[in-house]
Amino acid sequence: MRLKWITGTIRFATGIVWKKRMSFTESPAKAALCCEEGGEGTPPSFAMYEALKDSCQNNATYFQPDDSENGQRLYQGFVTLIDHIDTVWPLVDHVRKVAPLYDFDANSPGNGYRSFVSVVDSCVLHGLKLSRQVCTGRDALLFRKGYFVKEVESCGQLLASLGTCLHHLHTLLSWAPPGELFPAEQHSPEELFSQADTINQYCFYGRCLGFQFLPSMRGILKGISICMAGFSEAYYSHGNLISSVWTGGQYLIDPEMRARRIVNISQSASVEFCKAFWFLAESEIMKRVPSLMSSTVAVNKLITIPPEPITVTTTEGKETTVLPPTVHIGLQGLNVRLISVNKRMGMAGEGSSTLPPSDGIVFHCHGGGFVAQSSKSHETYLREWAAKLNVPILSIDYSLAPQAPFPRALEEVFYAYCWMVNNFKEIGTTGKRIVFAGDSAGANLIAGCTLKILMAGLRKPEGLFMAYAPLLVSFIPSPARLLCLMDPLLPFGFMMRCLKAYASPNGSKKDEKQGTNQANAVSNVTTPLDSNGFLKVSASQEGISEEPSSFEEVSPSDLAELQAHKSGSERRQSSDTTISAASLQSEHTATGVTPPAEKCEKYVSEFLERYVLDSDTESEGRRTRSQHRISEAATGIMGAMSSRLAYITGSNNIARPTQEDMAVRSNLDALIARSPSDEFIFSVPRDPFLSPYWADEQLLNRFPPVRILTVHLDPCLDDCVMFAKKLKKLGNVVGIDVLEGLPHGFLNFSLMAKEANEGSKLCVERIKQLLDVDEAPPTAENNHL
């Protein structure tokens, strides 16, 4: 016994000495440095992998004589990790060597290959940290073998799945010439996924969730994942919210159960669930956050633009008329949000002000996968932008898919731009400099809108700022797009379903019928479809769709017909002042929520109102209602406990998206992970308005200066890099920033994480450069990451 104690002490001391000899950071590997051996702040990659092998071997030797079940599982777990390292190293080493060939330039390293190398390196760092924890604590009296067994096995599964992804990357390398991130020939995702084993997605959403992101983001991502799993219980519980919360609480303490739930939600939940979950950002609680935590602004109002023809002047001095959008959902008013840190002269409804109009204006489109969110949910960072830029921001609340698929949102953004150029004074600007800004889906829309402006011969903006933009809405495989297989915010199934809802109207037709008011969905103008239900493509225009454009000459009979449609019932009513045929709405005025949105709001409000807050402001009423709900909740919980204890790992069913309720529902936790290629069951038209990457070079050559900001772990990273390369090749002014360790959509977390806030500040700097505004107040903070 004494000999064993001495041996253990020697091993412990050896581990401490070894740990001091080779020090590695616990933060994720930096993609910008992962391909530079011995780069500043990054240890040589080979030494890092060898250090993990040595540590695993040390632990394997220690636990090999342990006859207990957990001891043998730890031994096997560390041996398996060593085997995976030997398999993964040559694969990742080859990708590491060629990845720099795909960068935009030497000053902006970033592409999907680099990202995957950094993800694998981050996994190795995670495993090294875990192995050292075991090494230093295994002799302690309270060492938890059962806990570390699950952690080590989870890390091994993670490394094995990344090894499968690396096989896919080698296939992609063989499909494209050096420097090209998209295949040179026609290759389908099904073909890619058939080249290797099915990827186990469960390991990405369990104990290792968020390992590749910055430490400040991991807690946020874990909380969102737990919220997603718990919310799915409420969404699919058919009214039994108490029972669903009882089950949903287990996702907090059971990572494996959470992983199964999230993966199966991604594979099976409908786009309506995505909309409902993301609608949480529009809940009463979240609506109050910007006013409490963000910068104070003097102007924050909704403007409803009525569906009337707009006369605009082209760059050649000719007047032409732009029709309001009618495709898919007919004539409707369009909401835009005006945010300004100051009241300015001429602003309608703001009284008198001595501050002159701003020379600049930011025209903004929000993200949300084309199916969710609004300018309100993006107000957390828009307020900060308005304060730091000191110019008004006009954010567009375009219609959302699947009720309003492509090209409805694009036509509304173009229509809003035409309205803006006719109403500069009313929104507090001279319009001297216009900068487009958008994130995610919004970035796609402003790029498409720029194409429409150039084709129409209108005044183009002075600059474009795009954040993590999907610029190739197609299912051409690329290395960065494989990142969505492990993305907590944008899971693979979510991304596929959102793109299908927006880009493939025929494929979303069944979902569109659910909860849609058919009377409001009738349109006099429909998008021409081919025999397969996809948008027609004109060969003469190299893929530009022939759908009716909102920019065309209007005859007197057309104007008469439009006037006939202008009934009060078709507009969003407001009692506020009218600005040039546009009505102002207060924050609490109805904004014309569509029936599907009402359904989403119903789920969210019931969930939050019953368990989180009481929206009533009267204290006495709140106390009475709270007491009633506490009593109701207690009764419900007792009843739920009796039925759930015997089935504690159970889960409510999620129906696959169909036109009607499915007759047979399958239990999510009983589903087997299937190949991601199952989601690729529809086609997308090659339309430059849908995918600006396909735009004609003559149009792209006329683009204003472009600044792109994205992140290394973004599934849309390759879209941004390749689009920037294309503009650079044409001689355009273009720059790209790629940030470390942040997720897609990080701007929405700018109030929660320091690095996300610094990323938002960098956005401000890039927009300021495009505005070239001297009046913007300087900031003391360092805005460079």
From TrEMBL:
- Quick one: where's region Disordered? 562-597
Record GO terms (molecular function): sterol ester esterase activity; triacylglycerol lipase activity
* Alpha/beta hydrolase fold-3 domain residues: 362-509, 686-747
**Protein name per UniProt:** Hormone-sensitive lipase
A Gene Ontology biological process annotation? Answer: cholesterol metabolic process
Bias kind Polar residues: ranges: 575-592
Any one cellular-component term (Gene Ontology): cytosol
Q: Which residues form the Hormone-sensitive lipase N-terminal domain?
A: 48-347
Regions annotated as coiled coil: none
**Top-level taxon:** Eukaryota
Q: Which SUPFAM superfamilies match?
A: alpha/beta-Hydrolases (SSF53474)
Can you name the source organism?
Diatraea saccharalis
Q: Where is the composition biased (Basic and acidic residues)?
A: 563-574
